[in-house]
Amino acid sequence: MTSRPAAGDQHLRDLARLRRVRDRIDREYAQPLDVEALARGVNMSAGHLSRQFRQAYGEPPYAYLMTRRIERAMALLRRGDLSVTEVCFAVGFSSLGTFSTRFTELVGMPPRTYRRQATRATAGMPPCVAKQVTRPIRNREARPAEPQLA
Prior knowledge:
Blueprint: H1 7-28, H2 35-41, H3 46-57, H4 61-79, H5 84-90, H6 96-107, H7 111-121, H8 127-133
Helix pairs in contact: 1-4, 2-3, 4-7
């Protein structure tokens, strides 16, 4: 008689697959990645992967990918030896307009402004500390509304 795997065992296997997806995004952020390809890599449907990933990590895989790309772009912009356009393509964006829009949404300022301000603000700071201090805050553009007093 064969016993069915316990729900807890299945949950652990699902978490391991989600970790593989997250690790792949972290490794291959500059490559063309889409949710369908990520899902195929772990034998899941794109919809199921998106739901499970959001439940496990608080955001869907595409948003996680965009955050990784913007974090890397921030580091390259702080370094200062590449143009904004070069940074855009180096982190996997194919459109400067999309890059600038996503960067501004996550960081709160355009890439050119960020480079000017961050270079001064992180001067002399070890790169590992600068990365932590300047990490983008997801959904900065959607801050909670102030309570309204009637």
